[in-house]
Records
---
Amino acid sequence: MFAYELFVGLRYTRAKRSNNFISFISFISMLGMALGIAVLITVTSVMNGFQKEVRDRILGVLAHIQISAIEGGLKDWPAVAAKAEENPAVRGSAPYVLAQGLLGNEQVVRGAIIRGILPEREGAVADFKSFLRAGSLDGLVPDSFAIVLGIELARALGVGVGDKVLLIAPQGQITPAGVIPRLKQFTVVGVFEAGHFEFDSGLALVHMADAQKLYRLGDAVSGVRLKIAEMLQAPRVAREIALTMNQDVMVADWSRLNSGWFRAVEIEKRMMFIILSLIVAVAAFNIVSTLVMVVTEKRADIAILRTLGATPASVMGIFVIQGALIGVFGTLLGVGGGILLASNVDVVVPFIERSFGMQFLAKDIYFISELPSEVRAADVTFVATVSLVLSFLATLYPSWRASRINPAQALRYE
C-alpha cells in the first residue's frame, strides 16, 4: 500500500499541463527552502570559523591559564611555576610583567601594553617566533633596553628594526619641580604580526629584567602564564591548580579572561541561527499553500480514489508524501549548496571584494581581515533535521483536509 501512495504522490509532484502553476509554486517552495538552508549553513560555518580563528590568534599571544597575585606583584614566581607544572596537563610556564606605557617617536605618541618576558621561556606558552616579520626575540637581553613591537604599532610610530623609540612609564619620579614621568629610550629589535589587531596595534615586548627596572618591581613579576595540552580543558585545569596553590594568587583561564568577547560571539551566533531559521520556516510553510491548491484541484481525483476503496489514511499519506518530497529535495539541495559555499568562502568573498571594490572585514573592527569558515557535521545535521521536521509538519493539515473530502459532494458537479 505504501508503494501505491508513493506512486500517486510522485505523479502529483510532477508537472502536468493542468497544474503548471502549482508545480511552479512547488518549485519555488523547494528553492526557497534550499536557499534558506544554504544560507543558514554558510553563516553558521562562518561564525564557527570566526570564533575559532580569533580564539587561536588570541591564544597565540596570550596563554591558556594565567596566575597572578591578588595584591601587588608575585615575588616567588619560580615556586609558583614549579607547583603549577606538577599538574600533568601543564606543558609549559613563563613569567611575565604587564604594565602600561606611552611609546613615542618624534611627534607621534601611542599608548601600548608593555609585556616583560623571558625569551628563552616565552616559546613554551606563546608562539611569537612564528609571528615575527622582522628581527628576532634573541635581541631581548637584560640591560639592553630592546623592544619588539606589533606591526601596526610600529607602522603608526614610523619605526623599524634598529630605530629608537621613547618609552614613557606612567609611574613618575618625585622631584622638587614636581612629578616627572620616567623616560627610557629603547631600540627596536623585532616586529611581529599576530593577525589580531588588538595585539598588533597595542602590544610591545621587552625583556623582563628591563621591565622590572623601569617599573621598579624589584624581583617581583605580574604573574605566570601556563600552556596546557588541551585548551578546552583550561577551566577544569585552572580550578585544579588553584586548589594546590599555597600562596594567595588568582588563577584564570583564557575563557574567563576573554569571557565578554566569546559570550558576545556565542549570543550573536544563536541570534543569527534563529533569524535565518525563519527563512527555512517560511519556505516550509509555503508547502502548506502548495498542498492546499493541489487538494483543491484534485478533489475529483480524491473522490474517485475513495470510491475505489482508498481509505482516508491512504489519501492523507499521498499528500504527506508529496509535501515531504518537496522538503527532502529542498533540504538535500540546500545542504549540498551550503556545504559547497561554506567550504569555498575564502575564494568567493575575495572575488566579491575585488569585483565591487569593498572590504567586508576591517581589521580595526573585526580583529581579523579574512573571512574564515568551519563546517561542522553537528550543525549541518541539526539544520537538515529541523528543515525536514518543519516540512513534514507543514503537510499534516492539508493532507488531513484531503482525507476528509466527501466523495459524493466532490463528484456532484463533475
---
Amino acid sequence: MATSQRTDWPSILRTAVLAGITGGLAIELYIYVTVILRQNGDVLGYWQWIASVAVGQAALTSQAFAWLGIALHFIVSIGWAAGYAYIAGTRAFMSRRWAISGIGFGFVVYVFMQFMLIGAGKFVPPGDTQLVNQLVAHCLFFGVPVAFVTAKIGQST
C-alpha cells in the first residue's frame, strides 16, 4: 500500500513570502550599491525598466510605473522562493547544505531570468564585469538568502 505525503502549503507560502522578501531586498540593495550608485543612476528608472519587461515601453514614460516594477520584482522573488521552499521541503540535503544549494538556486534563477528577458526583447548581452556582477547578485545576494531563510524557517515548523 502506497503512502501519500501531504504538502504543507501554508508553511511553504509563509516561507516563500519571508524568503522572497529577504532575497528580494538583499539583491536590490546589492544592485543599488554596485550598479546604481556607482553609475550615478536613477533607482526609479531601474524599477521602471523592470516594469517595462511586463508592460512594454510605456513604463519608461512615467515614474509612476516604478511602483509596478517594485511590485513585480517582489512577486517574482516570492514566486522563486516558493519553488525553492517546495523543493527544499522534499530534499533534506538542501537545508543541511543551504549555502551551496542557494548558490546553485541563484544560478538557475539567473539563467531563467535571462530567458525571460530574451522573450521580452529586453536582453542585453553583459560584458565580462557585468556578467560576474549579475551572477554574484543572483547567486550570493538572492539564492543564498532564500536558502538560508528557507532552511531556518523549515527547522522551526
---
Amino acid sequence: MPSGDPWIRRIVTEASGEGRGTEHDWLAPLTNQDIRALVTRAGSGASGNLIRALRAITPAPVIVGANHDRFTIKSSLADLNYVVPVPTSTEFVDAVLDIVERDRINLIIGSDENVAKVLSDTRERFPFDLFLPRRETIDLCQDKQALNVFFRDRGIPVPRFYEVGSLDDLDGIFARFEGDGVLWCRARRGSGSVGATAVTNVDQARSWIAQWRDLRGIKVSDFTLGEFLPGRHYTVTSVWYRGQALLAQTIEILSYFAVGNNPSGTSSMPNLSKTVVAPEVLRICLDAVRAIEDCASGVINVELKETLDGHPAITEINAGRFPACTTTLLAACPTNMIEVFARAATGEIMAIPEPHGTAQEHYLVQDIDCLPRVITASALLEGL
C-alpha cells in the first residue's frame, strides 16, 4: 500500500519459493557484520541472479528490491520490495535514499548501466560509500568510442574503430580497412548490443545506421565503424578495493541466445559459458583497469574478443555493475565474487585463496524460462 511519500510505494512480499523473511527481520538490531542490500531492477533475470548469489552468504543478508515496473517486480526474489520512479527521473534518488533510511541499507547493487550512472553522479548524497569506481571512470566506460581512443593512446590492445560523423564518412572509413571484408558497426553508448551488426560494404552500413536513426532516433554521429574481431569471446569480472584487485575471474562465452536471428551470429546474451585460465587476457584487463583508475574500488567487467590471429583486444568495459548473464557463474566458483563485493563494500576484506580466479572448469547453461545451471567439467556426463 502507499507509504505516504509521493515517489515510493512499499510492497511486503510473502516468503514463498526462493524468498524468505518476515516483518520481524526489519526490527532486528544491526551489527557490524550485517549486510542489508538494495538490489535494483528487482524481478528481472539480472537481479534474480544477484539475489541468489547474495543468499549464498552466511549469515544471509537482508535483501530489498526496487523497480519502477510494477509488473516485473512481482517476480522479485527480495524479502521486501518497493515500486520506485524510473532511474532517469529526478525522483529516483530521493526514493532510494528514503529506502536506505527506512530499512538501514548499507549496500546498493545496481543491475544496469543507467542505475550505475545515476548513483555515480549523486554519490555524495548517500550516507555511506557506494563502492563504485570514480565518476570519471564510469563516464568513460559508458562511451565505447572514447574508451577505445583512450586505450589506443596508451598501447592497450583494442580494435580500430572510428566515429561516423555523417553517412558521407562511411566511404572513407571503409577505405581504411581495404581488403578486410567485414567491419563491425555499433552505437557508442548503450548495452545489449544496441545498434550492433557486421557489415560488408558501405551500402549495408548506410542502410543499417539510417534505419536506427529513422526508427529509433539514434543519431548518425552516435555510431562507430571499425575492425571486426572473429575470435574467441571473453569477459573478465573483477572486484577492486583501493587499487587492489581482490578477485578476478575470466570467462569464455561459448554460444549465444537467438544467434539465428541476426546476421552477425552473436549477441550480448550467452547461453553457454565457462570459467577459463587465460593469463594474457587477464593481464590485459588488469592493466586496462589500472590505466583508467590507479585506485579503483568496486566491480569492473571487461569484454574482449580475439583477432583473427588469436590476440585478445578489449571491446568494452562495464564499470560499477556485474554482468547480467554470468553472475551465477561468478557466484558458483570456489569464492563467491558477489560475497567478496558485498563484504568489501561493507568494510570486510575476505581472504581469497585464488585471487586470479579458479582453475577448475565450470560451465554455465542458461535458457529462457529456466533457472541458470552451473556444472563442473567432471560432472558433464554424470547420469547420462
---
Amino acid sequence: MNAVIQAKGLQKSYAGQRVVDGLDLSIYKGECFGLLGPNGAGKTTTLRMLLGLIAPDAGTATLLDLLDLPVPQAAREARIRVGVVPQMDNLDPDFSVAENLLVYGRYFGMQDSEIEARIPSLLEFASLSHKRDAKVPTLSGGMKRRLTLARALVNDPDVIFLDEPTTGLDPQARHLIWQRLRELTRQGKTLLLRQRK
C-alpha cells in the first residue's frame, strides 16, 4: 500500500539555521500522525513543505497518489483533496455558520447545490445544527473550532492537516474535538496534526 503522505530526506534552512534536517516519514490511509515538539522544532515548516507551500532545500515530499510528481509541483492538484484546520480560526465574521461553509466550498470549484447538500451533515458532525444561521461572533471558542473543522471537510478531503486543533479550548470542547477526529480516522481519513508538547 502506498503512503498517503511521504517525506524522504526533507531539509529546510532559514538564514543558515537548519530547521528540518533529513526528515523521513510515511503516513497511511486512516492514520492519525502527530508532529510533536517545542516551538522552533520545525513542525510548521514541515507542514508547509508537505502542503507544497514552500519548497524543501533537499529531499522530496509526496501527497496522496501523486507519487510521480512531488509537491510543490503537484501542490495545486493535491490541495483539492486536502482539508486544513489552521491554528487560528479565520472564519468570516460577516457570514453565518452555513454561509462560511458555502463560501469556502466555492474555493474548491464546488457547485452551490453540492455544498448545500453537504451542509446539514457537516453541521451535525460539528454539533452546530442549531447554529446554522448564527453569525460567527456569537459563537463560543469551542464552536468556532468545530466550525473550522467542519469547513475543512466541505470538499470531503482524503487528508486533513490540523495545526494545534485544541489549543485554548476548555476540557469539554477539547474532548469533543478529539472525539470528532477519531470519527474521521474511522471513516478512512488521514490526519496530520501539529501540536506543541
